UniProtKB/TrEMBL annotation:
Keywords, ordered alphabetically: Glycosyltransferase, Transferase
Residue ranges annotated for the Glycosyl hydrolase 94 supersandwich domain, each copy included: 11-288
Organism: Cellulomonas persica
GO molecular function per UniProt: carbohydrate binding; glycosyltransferase activity
GO biological process, one term: carbohydrate metabolic process
Record's keyword annotation contains Manganese: no
InterPro entries registered for this protein in UniProt: 6-hairpin_glycosidase_sf, 6hp_glycosidase-like_sf, Gal_mutarotase_sf_dom, GH65_N, GH94_catalytic, GH94_Enzymes, GH94N_CBP, Glyco_hydrolase_94_b-supersand
Domain (Glycosyl hydrolase 94 catalytic) ranges: 314-747
Taxonomic superkingdom: Bacteria
CDD domains per UniProt: GH94N_CBP_like (cd11754)
SMART domains: CBM_X (SM01068)
Protein name per its UniProtKB record: Glycosyl transferase
């Protein structure tokens, strides 16, 4: 069942009913100001940090769902409704929500009145703009009253939801009915003390009334759907003092048949230097010069339209870096539009702010952000460079890392724990991807501190060395890396032994003396240890490179001996040195992570797809037999049915969910890439389609979440509701699946000296063209594809056949034509 459709030409997903199985959202903003917006106008806004600079309040897990957002109430002669359906829930004659790239439009029509609102964050601005068009579609005159609504958060989102004894006394606002560009409400809570910032909510016309006190607007014991002011049709002109500050403007509109009226609302964030905070000597009136300048840039509908057009052109330019044209429209729309768009969002948000992540508990992940770089670096490499420096600056001198850091301060945060031993190696992965994309080896000489401590700066390459050496010096009795608190799987806690209800597996003190080892980190070390060695060699450090490659070879051998179970790779050794992920166990026999990552790293690959004795082929065939389902590959099988205290959080989930036998989409791409490594493109593409949202659109009633972006998790085959997704948008699946489809299925990936062109997608896509911009040159890559198992492409570059699969980088500004026959 579908609830809308793709509009590929407009690069939008069109939702045609408010009654989707779950709120389907979009992200506005890609620089410093961000908004989450559902198809029912729910969500919230923040500046840079969803915890520390939250502008508007949102209540998670509320009843009804998606309660709280930016709403526009219409009072049409006593008939009160909201064009977003929520919160009033009055039946609409027409509803449509269009989620585009950085913008959304929501249109509702009832009783001869149509209201269309375009929501977006303009390029270069710290504000959300809402351009409203009200049209009288009836054959009679209409006199309407419109009531806008936002509820301000008191900045620190965690404190806002907990410290009521203080917060219900500190709310402050200022009102400007005659601002230079209409009417404006200023949220200035705590501005009198330590804050240098405030929020403004304005409309570009003289309002006929206002409210800034929530209780006055909503009424005692009412929900937002039965708010008193819209029902009565008249604002109270309330002034918030303590309690709950809001922003609401009443605008009366008279329309002849067919007539329209356009309004522009702006929700903005403004900072003032300390010496310019006040407009008066008594320090009572906020300095509004910067706010007025902001509002002047959106004082007319024409200015708003121009800003939206600029935003759309911005995305057109970004998406021109990589595109495909094929006979598979779902493949094209995911590669050309939605997957790259989601990569931008995950780069900006990490795992911090979605409709499943509150923006309070997590900041930017050390591991997460490095992986997100892999799918983002081709879009805006200079921002990727900055992110690498930010991440590395939080690393400890011994090579280990904070698991997360706060985006506002860029400093490490231990609230979610540390000691995840896979973290350090991801810094090598992100840095190598950046250099391959840009050729900018100078980043390796950039001075970068440890733990942001001034005076501790060393070249970035030294940080990579510490990352590499941390794994070398933290190995267990089988020569495999020690797992620490956990590896990529945060819930595989082999040193925790928690028996206390409510205790965090991520922060509880680990027991000392264990020898728990990770085959996943071993495979990661083989892959990224080789990348480190290559970077060392290119810096002229031949001795360093030779030693590193020797250690990588040792780890490869360890994986194939003590890391091998006969038909697949073990997952780990536990605290007592006993294997996990072995056929000898009734539950958790096989785990997905090392099967994909080890083969990605080239471990046990053998002579190709027909080499059935090769460990890689055996492991991948075991995955297909035991882990693959119609909805993707489960993380392990069989799932655990009882709590395994020596394994930690992984066994606390019901069978089939999350890390306990769920389809954790993040790791499916590793197996897909692995299948291309051994030359089985048909199986790889089949796996790809099982988790990719555009191919799941027809089962939206089962999948439930957005059919245009990846989810973190899909319920596994042992779950009650197999195929149901959870945790959409913020997942490493976005970056990894873009790497998978663009670099391995379609087969065009940057290396240090050129583009590797090696398609492996099977016979379902017999021909396609990839356009790839790399280091300023444009490559038009035309592929004729048999899809035969094990077949590799033959390349003709600008009319000349070439040996191998690498196309040398051309000068910036040039165009290179590559013909590939597979």
């Amino acid at each position: 069942m579908r609830y809308g459709h793709f509009d590929d030409e407009a690069r939008e997903y069109v939702i045609t009913t408010p009654h989707t199985p779950y709120p389907w959202i979009n992200y506005l903003g890609s620089e410093q100001f961000f908004s989450l917006l559902s198809h029912q106008a729910g969500g919230y806004s923040f500046y840079r940090d969803a915890k520390m600079r939250r502008l508007t309040r949102y209540r998670y897990n509320n009843i009804p769902a998606d309660a709280g957002g930016r709403y526009l109430y219409v009072n049409d002669g006593g008939d009160v409704w909201t064009p977003s359906w929520l919160p009033v829930k009055a039946d609409l004659d027409h509803f449509e929500a269009r989620h585009g790239l950085g913008y959304s439009t929501i249109t509702g029509e009832r009783g001869g009145v149509r209201v269309e609102t375009a929501f977006f964050v303009p390029v270069g601005e710290t504000a959300e703009v809402q351009k409203v068009t009200v049209t009288n579609t009836s054959d009679a005159d209409k006199t309407l009253s419109l009531f806008s609504f936002v509820e301000f958060c008191l900045w620190n989102a965690q404190d806002d939801q907990t410290n009521y004894q203080r917060n219900l006394s500190i709310g402050e606002v200022e009102i400007e009915q005659d601002s230079p560009h209409g009417s404006a409400i200023y949220h200035r809570t705590e501005y009198r003390e330590r804050r240098d910032h405030y929020a403004v909510f304005a409309v570009n016309t003289k309002a006929d009334g206002f409210d800034t006190d929530r209780d006055s607007f909503v009424g005692a014991y009412n929900s937002l759907g039965e708010a008193t002011v819209p029902l009565k049709g008249e604002s109270t002109n309330s002034v918030a003092s303590g309690w709950y500050p809001i922003g609401s403007h009443q605008v009366n509109v008279s329309l002849a048949p067919g007539e329209s009226r356009e309004l522009v609302y702006v929700l903005g964030y403004v900072e003032n230097p300390d010496e310019e905070k006040w407009a008066d000597d008594a320090h009572q009136v906020v300095n509004k010069e910067r706010a007025h300048a902001l509002l002047s840039r959106f004082a007319t509908a024409e200015q708003a339209d121009a800003a939206l057009a600029e935003l759309q052109e911005y995305w057109t330019s970004l998406l021109s870096t990589y595109s495909v044209t094929s006979t598979d429209e779902k493949l094209d729309r995911m590669v050309n539009i939605w997957n790259q768009y989601q990569c931008m969002v995950t780069f900006n948000m990490s795992r911090s702010a979605s409709f499943f992540e509150t923006g309070i508990g997590r900041g930017m992940g050390f591991r997460d952000s490095n992986q997100d770089l892999l799918g983002f670096v081709h879009l805006i490499p200079e921002r990727a460079r900055e992110r690498i420096i930010d991440i590395a600056s939080t690393q400890f001198a011994d090579g280990s890392a904070y698991h997360q850091y706060q985006p506002l301060t860029k400093r490490g945060n231990n609230d979610i724990g540390s000691g995840f031993n896979d973290d350090p190696l991801w810094l090598i992965a992100g840095t190598a991807a950046y250099i391959k994309e840009t050729g900018d080896f100078s980043i390796l000489d950039e001075p970068v501190p440890f733990d942001n401590e001034p005076g501790s700066e060393v070249p970035l390459f030294e940080h990579l060395t510490r990352s590499f050496e941390f794994t070398v010096t933290h190995r267990g009795p089988h020569g495999l890396p020690l797992i620490g608190r956990a590896d990529w799987n945060d819930c595989l806690n082999l040193n925790c032994f928690s028996t206390t209800p409510g205790e965090s597996f991520q922060t509880t003190e680990n027991q000392e003396g264990g020898v728990a080892e990770s085959t996943f980190i071993a495979a990661q070390f083989v892959l990224y240890g080789e990348q480190y060695a290559e970077l060392a060699a290119r810096r002229g450090l031949s001795d360093v490179a030779e030693r590193a490659r020797g250690l990588v070879a040792e780890m490869r051998d360890a994986l194939l001996t003590d890391g091998w179970d006969g038909s697949w790779f073990l997952r780990a050794y536990d605290y007592y040195g006993k294997p996990i992920g072995t056929d000898a166990h009734d539950e958790g026999k096989i785990w997905i992570e090392p099967q994909g990552f080890a083969v990605m790293a080239g471990v046990g690959v053998g002579e190709g797809p027909q080499d059935t004795d090769a460990p890689a082929i055996k492991a991948l065939d075991s995955v297909n037999e035991m882990l693959a389902t119609d909805h993707g590959m489960v993380l392990q099988y069989p799932a655990y049915t009882t709590y395994q205290v020596h394994m930690g959080e992984v066994s606390t989930y019901p069978p089939g969910y999350k890390e306990n036998g769920g389809i954790f989409c993040h790791n499916n791409p590793w197996v897909i890439i692995a299948e291309t490594v051994v030359g089985r493109g048909a199986r790889a593409f089949d796996y790809y389609k099982r988790i990719t949202p555009a191919y799941r659109e027809d089962i939206s009633d089962v999948h439930r979440l957005e059919p245009y972006v990846y989810a973190q998790m899909i319920a596994g085959k042992e779950a009650v509701r197999h195929g149901e997704a959870k945790n959409s948008w913020l997942t490493g699946t976005a970056a990894w699946n873009f790497v998978t489809v663009s670099q391995y299925l379609l087969g065009v990936r940057p290396e240090y000296d050129g583009l590797v062109v090696d398609p492996q997608i099977g016979p379902e896509v017999p021909s396609f063209t990839v356009t790839r911009v790399a280091r300023g040159a444009t490559y038009e890559i035309v592929v004729t594809n048999s899809g035969a198992e094990g077949a590799r492409g033959r390349l003709v570059v600008d009319g000349t056949p070439v040996e191998g699969n690498t196309v040398q980088y051309a000068p910036a500004g040039s165009t290179v034509r590559v013909e590939v026959t597979v």
